[in-house]
Amino acid sequence: MSNxxxxxxxxxxxxxxxxxxxxxxxxxxxxxxxxxxxxxDELDMTQSAVSHQLKILKMNKLVRSxxxxxxxxxxxxxxxxxxxxxxxxxxxxxx
Amino acid sequence: MSNxxxxxxxxxxxxxxxxxxxxxxxxxxxxxxxxxxxxxDELDMTQSAVSHQLKILKMNKLVRSxxxxxxxxxxxxxxxxxxxxxxxxxxxxxx
DNA sequence: GTTACATATGAATGTTTATTCATATGTTTA
DNA sequence: TAAACATATGAATAAACATTCATATGTAAC
Lengths: 95, 95
Hints:
Two copies of one chain form a homodimer. The first copy, chain A, is α+β, with helices and mostly antiparallel strands. The first copy, chain A, has a single domain (3-94), classed as Arc Repressor Mutant, subunit A (Orthogonal Bundle), CATH 1.10.10. Chain A is 62% helix and 15% strand. Chain A contains five helices and three strands; from the N terminus they run ααβααββα. The first copy, chain A, has helices at 6-17, 20-31, 36-43, 47-59, 80-93; strands at residues 34-35, 63-68, 71-76. The first copy, chain A, has a three-stranded antiparallel β-sheet with strand order 1-3-2. The longest helix of chain A is centred in the last third of the chain and has 14 residues, at 80-93. Chains A and B meet through helix 1, helix 2 and helix 5 of A and helix 1, helix 2 and helix 5 of B. Chain B binds a DNA duplex through residues 15, 19, 21, 35-37, 45-55, 67, 69-72.
């Protein structure tokens, strides 16, 4: 092994995108920031399920959160997400 | 739902990259074509494990195979793989 | 045809993981 | 401070999946 497990890290990154719930969440956040409840409503998911997935996305620095009163708004952490997503879509459409 | 599950397809694509064994296989195939045994040797994996993973990669049209005598050589199906991999690496390195 | 080699495959196992349920934490308003 | 609302979290469950083992299929040489 080398000093850092580059393949493990890469696989972990892609693993995050390898779930349709997370993909759908990220696609929403591509337009604008969302609160947890609104996300859950629009995606027809449980508040709990959305919260769990958002935690994973945040731990991996793909989204960030901002509190406003009782609500917490989530948004994309940077623009890598959008490039990775569109990269994937290109491949899909050309298959 | 729409006619086709675009998010499911996208997630499925990324799921393939979400495993370090497959990532390592793909990285080898980035240089040149490989037979199953040589891949297994160099990656320190079982012949069976490599074969199983190659099947998944082939089913998803990420690699293709060519028979030469007793051996079967695998190579990348197109250059999407390389772009997706480098996209991921960029993100990793900037974290 | 039989032996040796290369790859594929099916079943079993263990691990990972997404979701659900119940409840806890945090925030605002009355 | 109590009640209502928004989100987070821990445990449990079920499903997905990578690997191993044993064996099957396919190919070449003898």
